[in-house]
Amino acid sequence: MTDQGSSQTGYLFRMSRADKLRLKHRAAAAGMTVQGYLEHKALGYDQPIARSSGRPRKSREIQEPLDLSA
Q1: Given Cys at both, which of 35, 36, 39, 59 links 45, Cβ 3.0 to 4.6 Å?
Q2: Per-residue pLDDT tens for 2-33?
Q3: How confident is the model at residue 67 (pLDDT cuts 50, 70, 90)?
Q4: Widest CA span of the chain, in angstroms?
Q5: Sign of CA pseudo-dihedral 8, 24, 21, 44
Q6: CA dihedral 29, 33, 21, 15 (to 10 degrees)
Q7: Residue 6: which region, alpha, beta or left (left: phi > 0; alpha: psi -120 to 50)?
């Protein structure tokens, strides 16, 4: 249903604080993250897409490992 090799993009969805709280509660009740819950309910995925945790970072924000061997 989705191309795993494609780049990711964000989508801003405005809602009231009450609706945001309702969405969080529904996701938690289903044992899912909000991301996974929306993929399941809105996009019809059987399983959420496996992603690393945390916010996506632009390639220039990714830090190089620090060499402490010196």
Answers
A1: 39
A2: 555 556 778 888 999 999 999 999 999 999 88
A3: confident
A4: 54
A5: positive
A6: -130
A7: beta
**Residue 68 tokens, joined:** 């402490």
Taken in order 19, 20, 25, 28, the sign of the CA dihedral is positive
Q: Quickly tell me which residue has 């809105």 as its tokens.
A: 42
Q: What is the pLDDT of residues 24-62, one digit of tens each?
A: 999 999 998 898 899 999 889 888 777 776 666 666 666
Q: What pLDDT is stored for residue 15 in this prediction?
A: 94
The token pair that represents 8 in the structure block? 């990711």
